[in-house]
Amino acid sequence: MRDFSSDHRWLSLNTATVRKQGDLTAIIEACARHGIRAIDPWRDQVATIGLERAVRAVRDAGLELSGYCRGGMFTSDAARRTEVRDDNRRAIDEARALGAPCVVLVAGGLPQYSRPGSAASKDIAQARAQVDDAIADMLEYARAVGMPLAIEPLHPAYAADRACVNTTKQALDTCDRLDPQRTGALGVALDVYHIWWDPELMPQIARAGKDRLLAFHVCDWLVPTKDILNDRGMMGDGVIDIKSVRSALEAQGFSGYSEIEIFSNDWWEKPMDEVMRICIERHRTMV
Ligand code: ZN
Q1: Class (C level, CATH) for 11-286
Q2: What three-state secondary structure class fits 251?
Q3: Ligand 1 centre and the CA of 213: distance in Å?
């Protein structure tokens, strides 16, 4: 396992971590101040400053990307299928322009939450089937332009409103169905927040193997968790054994960034430079 204790060259910052403190330009400038050499930006943050400006800012700062957040929200009623497809194709185009290594996919839950305005449904099995079909469709476009897709399984607490893909096994089953040759076009983004509790986690990481492990996200699970979406912890403040998960990924040959992704009402209150300083410190000691 790589030694992170003496530098933070493998730290990437998911830009949602400091989304309330400044726009993408300000975040990129702060990354330069702190010697952070990679980010994973969100589409809305890119849209706010404009794609061209974002591309230039990333290039001028010499930043790499560890992913692009996010594509997906595949579940909808029939009237919105074209919108879903076009939206996801645009995500791929943006990711290419920015030089991202993959588009992170959050599947979507029940259609009325994934794509508001869609007819309400309680059929989660149907939602899951729809996700597979939509990823198959998106994959054709992604393959044609050489952009890998990384399915991020989300904690089951989000099954209704964010993602009905809830375990690493489920995400890998989809990968095996749609990309049985393991071409590198389809894999998973594993986020410790979503997967740490899963008794099948370790065997599933081994099953994934290097070619399916496209991204690794870190933060921590606080006890108690006050808000299921926006109360993620800083690494080391919660109960996740992050090092053993990273060790399992690296045993498969994963050699990418450890991407810090913290949605937190508490951390959004603190100055950006303080958050980045602590991220670096915890990356060295807790990741
Ligand atoms: Zn994540």
Answers
A1: alpha beta
A2: helix
A3: 13
